[in-house]
Amino acid sequence: MMNHKVKHFKIENLFDEVHATRPYPESKGEFILKILKRRKIQKSKALMVGDSYIWDYEPARNNGIDALLIKSKYMHEHLSVKDVKVKINKLSDIFNYI
Predict the structure, then answer these.
(1) Are 81 and 69 a contacting pair, CB within 8 Å?
(2) 36 near 55, Cβ under 8 Å?
(3) Under 8 Å CB-to-CB from 58, ≥6 apart: which residues?
(4) Cβ atoms within 10 Å of 72's Cβ, excluding its own
(5) Given pLDDT bands bounded at 50, 70 and 90, which one contains residue 54?
(6) Whose CA, among 39, 49, 84, 98, lies 20 to 30 Å from 90?
(7) CA 6 → CA 16, 20, 82, 86, distances in Å?
(8) Mean pLDDT of 11-32
(9) Number of domains in the chain
(10) Measured between alpha carbons, how far is 26 from 62 in angstroms, rounded to an integer?
(11) What distance, in Å, lies between the first and last C-alpha atoms of the chain?
């Protein structure tokens, strides 16, 4: 399913890997750490970009990884979103951040 979405949006050239995580938010942070370790990437050199505070932003930050939150309908589900320092409107805004 994930690979289908990546192909549909014609963004497969932006990714080396595409994965889905287990059905609890902490799994994403655990998975990110495994990928960084396997690829020998320091946490300080990684950036998580996602549209969900609970599923994307928080797991990354809780594991010491910088994160950006894409503004979406999911943002308003959690009051903690106000603590997010950098929010972007669309993926191309990443280039203004990095």
Answers:
(1) yes
(2) no
(3) 25, 80
(4) 14
(5) confident
(6) 39
(7) 11, 12, 29, 24
(8) 82
(9) 1
(10) 9
(11) 29
CA 35 to chain centre: 13
Length of the chain counted residue by residue: 98
Answer yes or no: is pLDDT of 21 > 80. Answer: no
* Cβ atoms of 71 and 77 closer than 8 Å: no
Amino acid in the structure at residue 68: L
Which CATH number goes with the domain that contains 14?
Answer: 3.40.50.1000
The whole domain housing 38 covers 2-97
- pTM reported for the whole predicted model: 0.69
